[in-house]
């Protein structure tokens, strides 16, 4: 049911895109995103070893948003009633949802992004030795994808932490480390690499670690955490709603604290839980439900609105195409069983179905 309310969603990532799709027939929806497409982020490493995989993981916003306005630009300012974009749009809202996630400079068009994957793949194929900097889930999953698909490559992973993937428990870190070593990946912990000081060593590049060790590699991939995309809010009416880490402070309804009609969802909130795609989906689904209620019934519906409860630590990190390491609330497991859950299709079919598309 169309309510006539104007909803602006800033950010077309995991949370913003699902929310926009869910409410597009209940309000006048405007999605503001600097790119023309939604990307399934947890599948991007598979696309580097198998570029055709990206055909299913990169979805133009227009494909699933048949009843919404899409503005391909970045938001640069927010007032109590309007959003301003970098390309000069000035849009009035009744409700605003901020879902900008992490800063990730990717191309504007889907075709350019597909070309990027082809180039990354050529870089992997033509290298005999590869350096991966960063041992969080991205670095570990990339090492796993390359080790399984290109077992002849010499892989070195350097991580500044005392163990891999500090965001999950030590047992899961250990299992991932053992698996990487079993695939002949050399893992160097408690070290960093200054990529700018790499020198040409004839056939290879020569990199130096913070402990003075040298690593020879034909190319490198940087897999370190990206900053939150909230810095622009420091110049807006929401400047006091950011914590010291740049996260947006939200209440139990995922509204920006002190605001009735502004919500925040996804990685940018201060909800105390691991930031993951499936939780961003849960937040989007809850805010969609609450928005529909509020738009139809106004503030009287407060007692019927859902509240969001932080989730216990739960993570599945793929190790190539068939195995994974999983941390569940009360146990840790690795191997084929968690691999069956995630590693084959990486939830791509499920996510496409959720967006109303052919899996």
Record the SSE blueprint.
Elements (H helix, E strand, L loop, with lengths): L5 E5 L3 H10 L4 E6 L3 E3 L4 H6 L4 H4 E3 H4 L3 E5 L2 E4 L3 E4 L4 E3 L2 E4 L11 H17 L2 E5 L3 H13 L4 E6 L10 H13 L3 E4 L9 E3 L2 E5 L5 E4 L1 E4 L39 E3 L12 H21 L17 E5 L3 E6 L2 E5 H7 L5 H7 L5
Parallel strand pairs: 1-2, 1-9, 2-5, 9-17, 10-11, 10-16, 11-12
Antiparallel strand pairs: 3-4, 6-7, 7-8, 13-14, 14-15, 18-19, 19-20
Helix/sheet category: alpha/beta
Beta strands, count: 20
What is the residue-mean pLDDT, rounded to a whole number?
A: 95
Number of helices: 10
Radius of gyration based on Cα positions? 21 Å
Strand order within the widest beta sheet: 5-2-1-9-17
Strand content: 15-25%
Largest sheet: 5 strands, parallel
The unreliable regions are none
Percent of residues in helices comes to 25-40%
The secondary-structure element order is EHEEHHEHEEEEEHEHEHEEEEEEHEEEHH
Give the CA-based shape: globular
End-to-end C-alpha gap: 27 Å
Condensed summary:
The chain has 359 residues and is an alpha/beta fold. It is built from ten helices and 20 strands.
Protein described:
The chain is α/β, with parallel strands linked by helices and 359 residues long. Helix content is 28%, strand content 24%. It contains ten helices and 20 strands. The chain has helices spanning 14-23, 44-49, 54-57, 61-64, 110-126, 137-149, 170-182, 277-297, 336-342, 348-354, and strands at residues 6-10, 28-33, 37-39, 58-60, 68-72, 75-78, 82-85, 90-92, 95-98, 129-133, 154-159, 186-189, 199-201, 204-208, 214-217, 219-222, 262-264, 315-319, 323-328, 331-335. It has a five-stranded parallel sheet, with helices on one face. It has a four-stranded parallel sheet with strand order 12-11-10-16, with helices on one face. A three-stranded antiparallel sheet has the order 6-7-8, with no helix packed on it. Strand 18 (315-319) and strand 19 form a beta hairpin. The longest helix has 21 residues, at 277-297. The protein is globular and about 65 Å long. The mean pLDDT is 95.
